[in-house]
Amino acid sequence: MELAQDNGQPCYSARLLKPFTAVLREENGIPKSVLKWLAALDPDDRVHVASVHQMLEAAVALTHDESLGLQACSQTSTGDVGLFDFVVSSATTVRSALESAGRYMRLLNDTLEFALETEGDRAFVRLDNRVVLPTPAEDFQSCGIIWNQANSWPEGMLEDTDVWFRHGPPQNLEPYRAVLGAARLHYHSPRSGFSFPSRFLDAPLRTCDPKLHDILRNYADTTIAELPQPASVTERVRRIILEQLTANDLGQQETAQKLGMSSRTLSRRLSQEGTTFRDLVDDARKRIALRYLAEHDLSIAEIAVLAGFYDAPSFFRAFRRWTGVTPREYRRSHRGAFRVKR
Known about the structure:
49% helix, 2 domains
């Protein structure tokens, strides 16, 4: 596990790891070296994304507990992630708070694109990561935003919120309910994020402080400008994969040539960023398949081709591996996913 050394690798703020320290301290089997490393982190440190994901995957393997991200959420309160929390919670309205979250997300996370959109009577917050997240990381990301900000939201907003996860349903829903209350939960979604009635967008936050918000925005702008800009190989590879997914020559060697490096160098760079070429291809295929099945009227055969499959059995096998159901069953149960209207 490594701290950032200004080498262009994408990073998380160490503030995001502090809640995991308390959780892992109570778990059996976690090496003392890991706990010591976590406890020694300075809040202003930035930690390589790959190191964090490797730690979380190892922790799940040792504890057999995939709810670690939810448990970490319950250990946090507004202010624990520093400037980001305060600039968001001091905003005047829900809209301003979410727009601030998108603008200043790099204070915490180099890999997350946070976007607010509206469609009809629903507002949607889309959480699009440039890397593949282990389940605890996705849970902590999606639920942590809601958990830390819900006390600022207008009354009734959380109760009419839908939350989407890209991972499958858990065996135990209790940790999700403890963090998200009565929010509606959806799994194997084309995207991560949440939605709520758009009428809440211009409602005032309970914690709004316009004068403080202006001061904090200026400070946040200065702080972000001083952060190193990550040169993510993962993002460049993801773009090539999406462009070439239906081509016969899609492969690591061909992708490395497009980037002007050897296949071995590409493997090493992706490993440093916490992923592999195979994982990125599989993730791209899954994203395309889930999104088109939920949001478009193309036939399953056409979607299979768009996802880079050239025979139906291969597509069906991959889809069952991703979701545990057939494409047709997924389409029936997720039709209009991320387009919920009430």
